[in-house]
Amino acid sequence: MSTTMLPAQFPRLETEKLILREIMPADRQAIYENYSDPDNTRFIMQPLTRLEQADEIIQAFQEYYKKEQSVFWGVSLKGDDHLAGTISFENIQWEDQRAEIAYDLSKAYWGKGIMSEAIQAVLTHGFS
User: Fold this and answer.
1) Strand 18-22 relative to strand 13-14: parallel, antiparallel, unpaired?
2) What are the angstrom distances between the C-alpha of 71 and each of 21, 65, 112?
3) SS3 21
4) Strands of 13-14's sheet, edge to edge?
5) In degrees rounded to 5, what are phi and psi of residue 4?
């Protein structure tokens, strides 16, 4: 049995309205906007105060994937590559087949069912 549990190529997921994709350096402004908003970070971290902090977060997301600790997807609407938010499997416990789901979403996208659809895609991907 292989010790590698995650595919080498980042899993891109697609739903009726959404694309869930790897978060890239080009997403730094969107990450900064989402994570500098106190309403978005209230339960997870202190709001960002510098754009460079977004770069550090993106690098951490990529490292977590390489180390098979977490999978962070960027959530975008189909036809619009702008990052609306993120969703993740975190604290993956491979031996117990468990993980936590966490997410954030820019206020401009609240109340539109985006995270409900994203959560369903992530659950289907993780448990099918």
Assistant:
1) antiparallel
2) 10, 5, 24
3) strand
4) 13-14, 18-22, 71-77, 85-93, 98-105
5) -85, 125
Only one residue has tokens 């790897």, namely 22
**Is residue 38 a contact partner of residue 54, using CB atoms and an 8 Å limit?**
no
The tokens describing 3, both together, are 């010790």
Closest CA to 85 of 49, 26, 35, 12: 35
Token representation of residue 1: 């049995």
Q: How far apart are CA 49 and CA 59, in angstroms?
A: 17
What tens-digit pLDDT sequence spans the chain (128 residues)? Answer: 334 578 888 999 999 999 999 999 999 999 999 999 999 999 889 999 999 999 999 999 999 999 999 999 999 999 998 999 999 999 888 888 889 999 999 999 999 999 999 999 999 998 77
Structural domains of the chain ordered from first start = 13-126 (3.40.630.30)
